[in-house]
Specification:
The complex is a heterodimer of chains A (801) and B (321). With 801 residues, chain A is mostly beta strands. Helices cover 4% and strands 58% of the residues of chain A. In chain A, the strands form twelve sheets. Chain A has a 22-stranded antiparallel beta barrel. A five-stranded mixed beta sheet of chain A has the order 9-16-17-12-13. In chain B, the strands form four sheets. In chain B, strands 3-2-18-17-13-14 form a six-stranded mixed beta sheet, covered by helices on one side. In chain B, strands 6-5-9-10 form a four-stranded antiparallel beta sheet, with no helix packed on it. Chain B is globular, with a radius of gyration of 21 Å. Classes of the chains: A mainly beta (801), B alpha+beta (321).
């Protein structure tokens, strides 16, 4: 309760600071002039007051000012600024379309950006990415991947070679809240992590919060990755697509009713299986084997009135791996994937009060089906969420930006379930196990200016989680034998938890272009990803907090110095963080997946603590012909579990002392863009055997302390060139008979990428090879390092019309 | 049971074949202490046999002298059946009567040729009071090199296979698997181990197998089929040091029509099953980047290895199409 009292005081102080004067509200929606897409993060700046605000994710803004005349500038990176003299003597609604800079006449001098969010906001560890810029960076096998670009930011680590998984500030993969149009995506990867589920053509904005998580987000310890899908062009029909080495893409979008309603449908599918199929003989025993994945994104929106809008969006993606061998009557089929659906209703109660109500559905399923002769085996797992949330934004005056809301989720977990059959005999794998839980939260936060130099974002989140029946708890003794079974009826509470999560961040402005920020966050995480493998796999299962598993808790402390140079052309920051975490989960040593079947999977879990600290340095050039950034992280991450590594502290698999990323993009002219990426990271931790002995003539390894060795450092450079043929062409004007430049309706571009340009053999894994026979004196023991990807060129053709 | 989760391995294989590259590297491993390793067994009607060795550093020398030096001599090894506690004698292969060599081979898995060529030493006893009996628990105590090791194992009731036959594998001509029917007793946690030995001779006139061979996943328990009667199949497997042609050609892992095969099927302690399962998993997952290394759950307190009671039943099958 003490946190709540502090917050209330802070809140009341902030609100009372506003003077009772005659005030009016300037509000409206900001959109892209060409597509009608809302402009999330656009700036609205009152020149006279040297203050402003930003548009929310629906493009809505609201400024309440004293009665008077103001010069207001609307700006957004990459768009032409618009400046207005506004006489504010009544509430004013100003919806505005901003045009891309390339659309304006070249002779107009481009006004320097005034985007100083980096130093003026209270945001810490928050990064927004531009999808169009991401598309010009080198792409692994030609597949543009937003998650792989995220990995190039300081504090964010790649899960491995070619892998789209990411770790944030020493957190595990389950500690990232990945949202697609606000729906949780539980497994964001295709092909065992080599590609992410996010089709860049369908993505509008990407926002990563790795520290200073505001109170409207919760449920995870490490980060929020908020991805919004495009809404669809509500002005004209368009098609975009691309053909790459791995997959092809097609996106269709257009108005259903101009300026009122639009749709977008975007699909992507890999086709190695389709291309290979004609080359596999009909008589081949492997006919029918293959792998593919696909994604389908769809979204429609409808503007009911000036105050009400509805958005409905969905994602459906699947990976399917099949293996047939008719020689041995052996078949495997492994499908897995996510489904998400979001229905959102925006409502303006007034020019100062914005509401977004969201109904969400999210589903992740994995199955493994195998058969051989008369054996049939199936393993399946998953998680399903139904979620309802209401988020309110209240803009009482220029100094305050208040948000509050509530969130409820009903979870159904399906941990490892199996069925097995030999001929007519059905094996006893127990009843299908499903675990039910309720999760809810309420929050309030206020970002407010205490003085001109001090801005505070103070928030409080209260969260609650209840694991409910039907449920059977198998009570185990020290030998893991079941000694008792406790049954819980449908809806009966098994165990519940609640927590208060204070979030505070403060910005101390030092001058026009620099500030110091500090933040503290406390988070609770009630769902856990249990992984038996050294990396994240689709087989990993999500489990709830229960009578055995307490919620994970984390506290993060940040402080940072932020400075912009040359009219915000350069953005620089240095942040230091410390994070400690409790009740982390891992499988006990030697756990096997089949032990989950017919048992409570959390009986195999053990619990521990962790901490992480580090320094992140970031330097970014924001605009101009050459843009890019340098990010460097020094960090240390440790774990301590009583039942792992003999209770001794060990380096987490996310522990990486140095991590450097350099990203450069250069627009040579209208047609050519060149980009390059360089990454360097300390080698991954690894557990290696330290001694060996013999049993029945076989070598048995005894492993050393967990993660006590490291592989060689990882470094790699990628380059790319994007060629875009002229956007205009000469055409004879039938009226004048003269040739003149007209815009091309059909546009295309080529992206040429080279991954790992200097062919570095980066370690993917190390194994110990034993050949020969010790009793003959011919045993040869050696350590081998396997690398995955050598230099890999790729080309992708993109088009739009 | 042969059905397992192979897809990470298949992916690994796919990736390695298609794009991978591999090189030998040097890794610095810390110095390690040598622990005593027990490889001991006791079987119905047979004497206890214990091989005592040491663990060595992973990259320690692998010459013959080092190999011989692995064996621990002059240890005090006792086996107790609850009433009798008998000191085992160290007997080297050269001292074992030829008539007993097949038994030692069967129990240790070491071929007669190797036993005699390298003069393996084992701890055993001719005192029949502690020879294996069904239903009894045997306690092993070892004192050597200032280390004290203890372990317990039980010889469970034998559970014979209901029937055993050969069946051609898929489309493979004249090659196949051995099939069996197991009727698992209900209400108790049973664990099993399977071996097979081809006792006919190969084209060169040599015995096809010189000892019993365990295939991969040779151990299993009745977690999912308690009290059920069902059919299952096993492949042939191979010995770790095999250089036989049929372990490298199309016949790899398969029995062949004309083979005469002795199947040895035994109940074992569930804890012993955990040990062998972990050892076999370790062999299969060596180098698998997705596998998390895990310690092998030994049933020897104070040391490494395994002390196992077998209640084996032998069956012979002739492979006919």
């Amino acid at each position: 309760m003490k946190y709540f009292s502090y917050f209330l005081l802070l809140f009341l102080f902030g609100v009372s600071y506003a003077h009772a004067q005659e005030k009016y509200t300037l509000s409206g929606y900001l959109k892209d002039a060409k597509t009608g897409e809302s402009l999330f993060g656009a700036n609205i700046y009152v020149k006279d007051l040297l203050k402003g605000t930003t548009a929310n994710s629906y493009g809505f803004y609201s400024l309440t000012l004293d009665k008077g005349s103001y010069t207001v500038v609307y700006s957004f990176l990459g768009y032409q600024d618009q400046e207005f003299e506004i006489e504010l003597n009544k509430d004013l609604r100003k919806n505005l379309d901003l045009g891309l800079k390339e659309l304006v006449i070249k002779e107009v001098e481009i006004i320097a950006e005034r985007d100083d969010k980096n130093t003026s906001s209270t945001d810490m560890g928050k990064v927004e990415m531009n999808v169009e810029k991401i598309k010009k960076l080198p792409a692994f096998l030609g597949e543009v991947d937003v998650l792989k670009t995220i990995q190039l930011l300081p504090g964010v680590q790649s899960a491995g070679e070619g892998n789209s998984g990411f770790y944030v500030r020493g957190g595990g993969p389950d500690q990232n809240l990945i949202l697609l149009d606000e729906a949780v995506v539980y497994n964001a990867s295709h092909l065992f992590g080599f590609f992410s589920v996010f089709n860049a053509d369908a993505v509008k904005s990407i926002e990563l919060i790795k520290g200073g998580m505001p109170a409207n987000y919760g449920g995870r310890l490490a980060s929020v990755l908020n991805i919004n899908m495009n809404e669809g062009n509500n002005r004209s029909f368009h098609a975009d697509g691309g053909i790459g080495l791995i997959s092809s893409r097609l996106t269709l979008q257009g108005p259903i009713k101009k300026d009122t309603s639009s749709f977008i449908v975007s699909g992507r599918r890999t086709y190695i299986d389709v291309l290979m199929d004609p080359f596999i003989s009909k008589d081949s025993p492997f006919k029918g084997s293959g792998y593919h994945f696909y994604d389908l994104n769809a979204k429609i929106n409808y503007k009911i009135s000036d105050k009400d809008r509805i958005f409905a969006s969905g994602y459906f993606g699947r990976d399917v791996f099949t293996y047939n061998n008719t020689n041995s009557n052996f078949r495997i089929r492994i499908p897995w994937g996510n489904t998400t659906t979001a229905i959102r209703w925006n409502h303006l109660f007034s020019d100062k009060l914005f509401m977004n109500t969201t109904a969400l559905y999210s589903d992740y399923n994995f199955a493994f089906e195998a058969s051989q002769s008369q054996f049939d085996f199936k393993l399946f797992s998953g998680i399903r969420d139904a979620n309802l949330k209401v988020d309110m934004a209240y803009y009482p005056n220029l100094r305050h930006n208040i948000r509050f809301g509530t969130n409820y989720t009903y979870h159904i977990f399906t941990p490892n379930n199996a069925s097995a059959r030999s001929g007519d005999v059905e094996f006893d794998t127990g009843d299908i196990s499903r675990i039910h839980a309720h999760e809810s939260a309420v929050y309030i936060l206020d970002e407010f200016d205490v003085t001109d130099w001090l801005r505070i974002n103070a928030g409080l989140r209260g969260s609650y989680f209840a694991h409910v029946g039907p449920f059977e708890r198998y009570v185990k003794n020290e030998n893991f034998a079941t000694t008792d079974t406790i049954s819980y009826a449908n809806g009966k509470k098994v165990k519940d938890y609640s927590g208060l999560e204070p979030r505070v961040s403060m910005r101390f402005k030092l001058g026009l272009n620099s500030s110091i920020k500090t933040a503290f966050t406390q988070n609770y995480q009630y769902v856990h990803l249990a992984s038996l493998s050294a990396v994240s796999l689709p087989t990993d299962i999500w489990l709830p907090s229960s009578d055995r598993v307490k919620p994970q808790t984390g506290r993060q402390y940040n402080i940072g110095y932020f400075r912009n140079f040359k009219e915000n052309l350069w953005e620089a920051s240095a942040e230091v963080y410390y994070k400690d975490m409790d009740n982390l989960v891992e499988y006990r040593e030697g756990a096997v997946p089949e032990a989950d079947v017919g048992d409570n999977p959390d009986n195999q879990l053990v619990f521990g603590k962790g901490y992480s600290y580090g320094l992140e340095v970031f330097l970014k050039k924001r605009y101009g012909a050459t843009t890019g950034w340098v990010g460097y992280t020094w960090s240390k991450t440790s774990r301590k579990f009583d039942e792992i590594n003999n209770g001794l502290e060990f380096a987490a698999k996310y522990d990486r002392r140095h991590d450097l990323s350099v990203v450069i993009s250069h627009q040579l002219n209208d047609r050519w863009n060149f980009s390059g990426v360089f990454v360097y990271a300390t080698g991954n931790t690894i557990t290696l055997p330290v001694s060996r002995y013999f049993i029945e003539g076989q070598i048995v390894s005894e492993y050393g302390p967990r993660n006590s060795n490291r592989m060689a450092p990882y470094h790699r450079a990628d380059i790319s060139a994007t060629y875009t043929p002229g956007k205009r062409k000469k055409k004879v004007n039938p009226d004048t008979g003269e040739k003149e430049w007209v815009p091309r309706k059909f546009r295309s571009s080529w992206n040429f990428s080279i991954y790992n340009v200097y062919n570095r053999a980066n370690p993917y894994f190390i194994y110990f090879d034993n050949e020969g026979d010790l009793s003959q004196g011919t045993l040869d023991v050696s350590a081998k390092q396997v690398s995955l990807f050598p230099i890999l060129p790729s080309v992708t053709w993109n088009f739009s019309f | 049971m042969k059905i397992q989760l192979p897809f990470p391995l298949m992916l690994l294989l796919w990736v390695s074949i298609n794009t991978g590259c591999e090189k030998e590297i040097t890794v610095d491993l810390p110095e390690t202490t040598h622990k005593l390793v027990v490889e001991g067994s006791i079987e119905t009607g047979l004497p206890p046999i214990v091989i005592l060795t040491r663990s060595v550093g992973y990259f320690d020398p692998t010459d013959l002298a080092t190999f011989r030096n692995l064996f621990v001599h002059d240890a005090e090894v006792y086996v107790s059946n609850g009433t009798q506690n008998v000191l085992l004698q160290e007997v080297c292969a050269s001292q074992i009567p030829d008539s007993l060599l097949p038994i030692v081979t069967a129990v240790t898995g070491i071929s007669e040729e190797n036993l005699t060529a390298f003069d393996y030493c084992v701890y055993t006893t001719f005192n029949t009071s502690v020879w294996g009996e069904v239903g009894k628990t045997y306690t092993l105590t070892v004192d050597a090199e200032n280390q004290h090791l203890t372990s317990k194992t039980m010889i469970h009731d034998p559970i014979p296979l209901d029937s055993l036959w050969f069946e051609v594998y898929g489309n493979a001509d004249s090659l196949g698997l051995l099939w069996a029917i197991l009727d698992d007793p209900a209400g108790e946690h049973n664990a099993y181990r399977w071996w097979a030995q081809r006792i006919n001779r190969g084209p060169e006139g040599d015995p096809k197998d010189r000892t019993f061979v365990t295939p991969d996943n040779s151990v299993f328990d009745d977690q999912f089929f308690d009290g059920l009667e069902f059919e299952f199949a096993y492949d042939r497997g191979s010995t770790p040091d095999s250089e036989a042609d049929d372990d490298f050609n199309i016949e790899r892992g398969l029995f062949k029509t004309g083979d005469t095969v002795v199947v040895r099927f035994s109940t074992i302690d569930p804890a012993v099953m955990e040990f062998f399962r972990a050892v076999e998993t370790q062999q299969l997952s060596n180098g698998n980047p997705f596998a998390a290394p895990a310690p092998v759950p030994v049933n020897i307190e104070g040391g490494l290895g395994v002390w196992v009671g077998y209640s084996a039943v032998l069956d012979t099958v002739i492979c006919l199409e």
